[in-house]
Design brief:
Helix content is 18%, strand content 28%. It has helices at residues 5-11, 29-44, 69-74, 115-128, 187-201, 256-265; strands spanning 53-54, 58-61, 65-68, 90-91, 104-107, 138-140, 146-151, 159-162, 172-176, 226-227, 274-278, 281-285, 293-306, 309-323, 327-328, 339-343, 349-362, 365-372. The chain binds zinc ion. Zinc ion (ZN) is lined by residues 1, 64, 196, 200, 206, 244.
Length: 378
């Protein structure tokens, strides 16, 4: 995450202005052609072409997103109409695969020399792993998918991250060393930066394109990026941790739309339940899901008419926890009836329907699958 205008104006008096990362670097004609080429490749990915910094093997765009030259060469072309534009919660087409997103391992040992940053990184991976109903799970481990390191970046950057590729998260997050960064940060600001940079490695782009002055250009909307459904319109989301240029913000939690974006891009997998009958007993099967534990619920619905009027409701005939597929249910018996109907005279009646609910439980929520059960004892 790069720190933007406010700090730049404060710090310019005491720091070398030429270090500003936004300045174009080359004016030589031959190099200009190469720069133009690079700019087009970057814009084809939907990033701003006017914020490209060339570091040889890789470029940095929008201040803190690292793209390898190899990524640029293999990137798909954006639709015609220009680059830039997206300013809501959004991602590019490069995302982390599943179940990889549930098995991300990180190495934070490279931050050991600056323990405040290391603590912030550790807290941040926990925060991403607790977003309700998102499949994102990140732990420390080896081999690492994301390696945190200290580096010496431009004075006005706090940190930078790389983008996902090939179904893997962005492999690097570089934190600006204390003796390179041009401003002081407290621990809540460090945490904000670490949550933000991890977001980039998961494929989240900057939320606040409007603050980056793209909002008045109709040709530059949502090209080369995927607007995440349900996240805000042109009003943006000031509370989003994925806003760019906010390195001085203190961590204040994920916004509601950040959470929506996380569970939309990386939803919990939904199980798929099938019921057969073997030797008179229901025989339940489902494909395994990484990270899930399963609970089987025997369920029935009732509706009818009695002296008090019409009624309806669901009931439970038992719950079985920690089940794995295949599961033979000895608590219900095959009868061939999914529903039963009883005429109770005087206009009164009762109807019951029987089914199974398979619940897949994850650290951040549950998903469900339903299948009828032919167990009605009519
Ligand atoms: Zn950023």
């Amino acid at each position: 995450m790069k720190n933007s205008r406010t700090l730049a104006s404060l710090a310019a008096a005491v720091l070398v202005a030429g270090a500003c990362s936004d300045a174009p670097t080359s004016t030589a004609p031959a190099a200009e052609d190469a720069d133009q080429q690079l700019r087009k490749q970057v814009e084809a990915l939907g990033f701003r072409g006017d914020m490209v910094e060339d570091f040889g093997d890789y470029v940095v765009v929008e201040g803190d997103i690292r793209l390898s030259k190899a990524q640029l060469l293999t990137a798909r072309q954006a639709p015609a109409g220009g680059a830039m534009g997206p300013r809501f919660q959004f991602s590019t087409t490069a995302l982390v695969g599943s179940p990889k997103v549930h098995q991300i391992r990180v190495d934070v040992t490279g931050l050991a020399a600056e323990p405040d940053w290391q603590n912030a990184a550790r807290t941040a991976i926990g925060l991403w792993s607790q977003v309700p109903n998102s499949y994102i799970q990140i732990v420390e481990g080896s081999p690492a998918d994301i390696t945190f390191a200290l580096g010496c970046l431009a004075w006005n950057w706090a940190a930078q991250a790389s983008w996902p590729a090939g179904g893997d998260p962005g492999p690097t997050i570089t934190v600006n060393r204390d003796n390179c960064i041009g401003f002081g940060l407290n621990n809540q600001q460090r945490l904000q930066n670490m949550v933000h940079e991890i977001g980039h490695t998961l494929g989240f782009r900057h939320t606040n394109w409007s603050a980056l002055n793209e909002q008045n250009d109709p040709a530059h909307t949502q090209i080369g990026a995927v607007h995440i459904p349900g996240t805000p319109g042109t009003g943006g989301d000031p509370g989003s941790v994925m806003n760019g240029g906010m390195a001085l913000n203190a961590w204040a939690g994920f916004s509601a739309n950040d959470q929506l974006a996380a569970r939309t891009l990386y939803p919990l997998p939904v199980p798929s339940l099938a019921v057969a009958y073997v030797s008179g007993q229901p025989y339940l099967t489902w494909p395994s899901i990484v990270g899930a534990t399963f609970v089987v619920h025997r369920k029935y619905s009732s509706q009818g008419q009695d002296e008090f009027g019409w009624f309806t409701g669901d009931g439970s005939a038992g719950t079985i926890s920690n089940v794995s597929s295949p599961f033979t249910d000895t608590g219900w018996t095959y009868t061939g009836n999914q529903t039963c109907y009883w005429d109770q005279g005087s206009g009164y009646w009762l109807e019951k329907g029987y089914w199974y609910t398979l619940e897949a439980q994850f650290p951040t929520g549950s998903t469900f699958s339903y299948a009828n059960a032919e167990v009605g004892d009519c």
